[in-house]
Amino acid sequence: MSTQQSKASNKRERFVYEDDQVIEKPFNWAQLGRLFHYMKPYRKQLLPIIITMMILGTATRLAIPALVILAIDEAIWPKEGSPSLTLLYTYAAIMLGLYIIQWGANTLRIRYTNIIGQRIIYDLRHDLFSHIQKLSFRFFDKRPAGSVLVRITNDINALQDLFTNGVVNLMMDCVQLVGIVVILLLWNFQLGAAVMITVPLMIIVSTSLRKRIRFAWQDVRTKQSRINAHLNESIQGIKVTQAYVQEKNNIHYFDHMNTVNMKAWHKASALNQTFGPVIEITSAIGTLILFWYGSHLIQTSVITVGVLVGFANYIGNFWDPINRLGQMYSQLLIAMASSERIFEFIDEKPSVPELQEPKKLREIEGHVKFENIIFEYEAGRPALKNINLEAKAGQSIALVGHTGSGKSTIINLLCRFYDPVQGRVLIDGQDIRDVTLESLRSQVSIVLQDTFIFSGSIRDNIRYGRLDATDEEVELAAQAVNAHEFIMTLPDGYDTQVEERGNVLSMGERQLLSFARALLADPRVLILDEATASIDTETELKIQEALKTLLFGRTSFIIAHRLSTIRHADKIIVLDHGVVMEEGNHDELIRQKGIYHGLIEAQYRFLSA
Amino acid sequence: MDVFKQLKDYYWPERRLLVASIVSLIIATALGLVYPVMLKTLIDDAILGGQFGLVPTIALTVVGVVILKGSFQYVHGLFGGRLGNRVAYRLRNESYKKLQYLSFQYYDKAKTGDLMSRLTADLEAIRNFVGFGFAQILNMILMVVFGAAMMIYINWQLTLLTFVTMPLLAFTALRFEKKIHPAFQEMRLAMSHLTTAVQENITGVRTVKSFAREPHEVSKFSARSEEYKENQIRAAKIWGNYFPVMELLASLCIVILLVAGGTLVINKQLQLGELVAFFSLIWYIVSPMWGLGFHINNYTQSKASGERVLELFNQYVHVKNDERAITLDDEKVKGHVRFENVTFSYEGKQPALKNLTIDAPPGKVIGLLGGTGSGKSTVSQLLMRAYNIQDGQITLDSHDIRKLDIASLRSQIATVFQETFLFSASIRDNIAYGINEVTMDEIIRACQLAKAHDFIMELPLGYDTVVGERGLGLSGGQKQRIAIARALIKNPRILFLDDATSAVDMETEHEIQAGFRELMAGRTTFIVAHRISSLRHADEIIVLDNGEVIQRGTHEELIAVPGHYQDTYNIQYADRPVQSNSSDGNGKERRVAH
Fold first, then answer.
1. Which residues in chain A have their CB less than 8 angstroms from residue B63's CB?
2. CA-CA distance, A392 to A395, in Å (whole number)?
3. A254 vs B209: CB contact, 8 Å cut-off?
4. Is A528 in a helix, a strand, or coil?
5. Tens digits of per-residue pLDDT, B540-569?
6. B484: nearest Cα among B389, B414, B575
7. From the CA of A443, how many Å to the nearest CA of chain B?
8. pLDDT value at residue A550
9. From A88, A312, A534, residue closest to B259, measured CB to CB
10. In chain B, which residues have their Cβ closer than 8 Å to the Cβ of A448?
11. Beta pairing class for B337-344 and B353-360
12. Most distant CA pair in chain B, distance
């Protein structure tokens, strides 16, 4: 309900952030089972130790108040006979022994639960990350990087507490509760039963309260995730903000967002604070019964003073676990929400799946063929309409056309980032859907428009193209694309550390690195997607010279706006709205006097206009 | 406590809440002491003394006291929560404000993931400590003091005896604090490494996939994840060792009490009820001690978090307003830009610009051409004073820009960056980002000039289309055109296009240029480009190499002399079609409806 309200008000806001779903769902037992499946590997070695230690620790804890009572009733203030110091010391010694056992049990328990818990978290995180690596572009297209990141970090971390402490504490509290109930009822059934009357009451009160508290926290989380989304973005876009002097407006916007968040916190924490006192006041009814009915029972000589004291002690230990169990339930629900988001990703199927037993693409010649390809990014909006094209091994193909004409789409299909809706892509006569992605992509390299730089050294960034390349090979590749010179001007040369963002490298320099990377990969088919847009003409020329030798015998696809870049291609394909309009080499197309000719013409017209 | 002294500004204004919360907590704790007293009275006077008539009074008193105690606890929680939330609010606002004004120099090195964790996880830790942790520690001390006072009142010898293990406990607690602090720091670092690996993997997914590097990424990730796991386990081992020891030391009090107290009762030196009360009171000492490790953890973590937030607050702002900064009168600004012998280098790098001199009077178009890393983009960032220059001066209408109010300077300039950034907002709001009040007509007009209107209208929601992070869903050229519209709508005195049309095809670029030439008549324009056609009409073209000017002049002048410019021209226009005059209509005809 609150989501709708906020959506409406967002219309007038500066930025728009999608909310994660907050609708309360029924408790998902299947999912819990799936989560606990991760405990399986440990069930034989570590889990038994932990459970033993847990029971041992809880049992000693339960035994101690009983010992005190026994000591009072039998050694210090016996009903019959005289007090006995020996007996007192015996009890004290037993007690000391129990505490030492408890100490040992707790030490081992904490150590092993953390080992298991952290391993489970590691396994879960590993599964999630590895699975995400298998997913295709369609998956990433739909989601901002932040939302994927949050699942691998925050959502998994949210389960960490559950696995390291939560489960064990839950079990300990349950054991403790049952233990106390049994002890009290065994000790004196009448008084035990009378005091227990408050338990159902307490369960009802705490359940209804918890529900309201939970809703309040959900609201907090929604608001918080919006804040996080904005923070992330405002850091990424800081240059635009400062250039357009929007600091004050943003601060104002953020203040509003922050205030809304604070109010949600106020509400949730105020509600949260009612829980403890309410439980405590309810528990006072139990104490009332104990005092009143207990003294009556003493008066009628049904019980001893020791029993009353013992009851008072145990009851004190009773409300804490109930309180904690209530909190635990909320924590469990939060964990379930996180695990739901995690499993949602794990269940996602790659949109370009590999065959059950895919072949490896053997070493290719580089003969590429598109057969009657139809493709759409979104249903009903075709990006390619029945494309047929062919690149013989070793040919260079240039793709020309306006934004949205389908150039990049062709490239995306060739790398099998997407699968066509109809038709097939063949390399050396082999449908690329039949081979492993790894064997395909290791022979087809692409140099992208925005080069991604990983944080690390320049050397490692180039080596990304072929992980086992020697330092020498890395430098040779850099020299071949004219990157060596600028790298040598950097403070630490090839060992200079670079970051994803930042000013160490210019756009053009990054593109040069990207070239070196692709070269090192030594592909049979090389794709340049606007790869030289930010490189000056002279460097580009040098790169092309280098590429000429390197491309010898390789197939290449080139997308560029600068016509000088594509002039020498063996075949130029002119695209428009997903249809091939013209096809041929530079001279042929000029002679045709079609679109390509018009483009070349225009270039000179602009020059003289 | 030094960290919290420095953070005083953020919680001190809320001191009333702090005091109210602490006072309520003290009262609640004090009221808790009534219970053991009542228990003692029940046993000693009512039961053993035979005055069973007292029982209802005692029982009802207990209930009344518990209700009162619960209420005070609630008040404590309410105020404590409010306090923590307000402090978090203030700190968050302050952090955000700081982030808005930190200079490019800072962001060149900062990691987004790291900043995010400071603004989220670290603030959370502070919120908890200020709101609750601090009061709880105080309460813990009070419980021990109250409990001890009561016990001393009943029997001081027994009390002293019982407390014999306390110095040992205190010593253990201090050692624990010392050991766990570095473990926490390592854990945080490990988490930050992990986050960085994941973030880069997702942002660079195209690169990862195109090289089929998934296995490599998984193994890189696994190594970081392993590091994190090992750190967690190591930290857990520390507290796994210390917590039970502290518990044991606290529990020893109970054993001692049983032995000593029991002996005293047997020797008739102590009442039974008094011993029972001692057993009740001892929890006032033992349970805070059991929780000691937890509180120390809490305090240490929030201290570390406080340090990290303060580090951000204390971050040096490189570019600041001069004390007597001049604010320009928007009406009177002419837009005359001069670079005079400007030298600049990025931190730890060789100079990006050496001795650069440019004169750009109003109405002129300055073109910049040069190799990668030649310093073209640096010019735009220096003009908006994103960095301070090391030598020379930059003037706007003969004011040194260092003497100008930064906001006032920047509002005269509209820069279109090489890398386009679009916010998560509607296209309309993205375009209107730089101005406060704007009509739809103005937005459409700017988009028409930037040749963005047609493709925007093709989108299902038109101008209301929300573009996501990094403008997903739009092509590079489309994003660039939106960024150009964002600059044009500002109606700036100075327009700086930093390779802003690299992903736009030539024909469209030509139309865009015609658009802003009209808008920028009488004003100053800078164009960085690689295509000769983009620079063709500039009044002066400056060719940069390695931060130095190697050529300058108009297109006609430069093309006539051998040099970098002519070379570039020759490469780009190597084979001009022969029959260039016969096909005038063709180009226009084929300009596809877009």
1. 284-285, 287-288
2. 6
3. no
4. strand
5. 999 998 889 999 999 999 989 998 898 888
6. B414
7. 9
8. 65
9. A88
10. 206-207, 210
11. antiparallel
12. 126
Amino acid of residue B395: T
Count contacts between A and B (CB, < 8 Å): 531
Phi and psi based region of residue A401 (left: phi greater than 0; alpha: psi -120 to 50; beta: remaining): left
The b-or-e profile of A533-571 (16+ CB within 10 A means b, else e) is bbbbbbbbbebbebbeebbeebbbbbbbbbbbbbbbbbb
Structure tokens at B205: 């997914």
Tell me how far apart the alpha carbons of residues A514 and A308 are, in angstroms, rounded to a whole number: 80
Amino acid at A225: S
Q: What is the pLDDT of residue B550?
A: 92
Distance separating alpha carbons of residues B445 and B453, to the nearest angstrom: 8
DSSP state of B463: G
| Helix, coil or strand: residue A173 | helix
pTM for this one? 0.80
Amino acid making up residue B319? V
ipTM: 0.83
Give the max Cα distance, chain A: 125
**Angle at CA A588, nearest 5°, toward A587 and A592?**
115
Structure tokens at B394: 């930059």
Does the distance separating the beta carbons of A441 and B266 come in below 8 Å?
no
3-class SS of residue B425: strand
A87 close contact with B: CB closer than 8 A: no
Phi, psi (degrees; rounded to nearest 5) at A583: -155, 135
Which amino acid is residue B286, in one-letter code? V
Contacts of B68 (CB under 8 A, 6+ apart): B31
Q: Where are the alpha helices (DSSP H) in B406-496?
A: 406-410, 427-431, 440-449, 453-458, 476-488
Q: Which two tokens stand for residue B334?
A: 């002419």
Signed CA dihedral, A544, A547, A549, A552: sign only: negative
Tokens 């065959």 correspond to A355
State how far the alpha carbon of A526 is from the alpha carbons of A5, A25, A478, A481, A562, in Å: 51, 50, 17, 14, 19
pLDDT tens digits for range A173-232? 888 888 888 988 988 888 888 888 888 887 788 778 877 887 888 888 788 878 888 888
> How many C-beta neighbours within 10 Å does residue A351 have?
14
Contact criterion met (CB below 8 Å) for A596 and A602: no
Integer Cα distance of A414 and A387 in angstroms: 12
> Contact, A290 vs B38, CB < 8 A?
no
Q: Residue B153 contacts by C-beta under 8 Å, 6 or more apart in sequence?
A: none
Residue in chain B nearest A278 by alpha carbon: B70
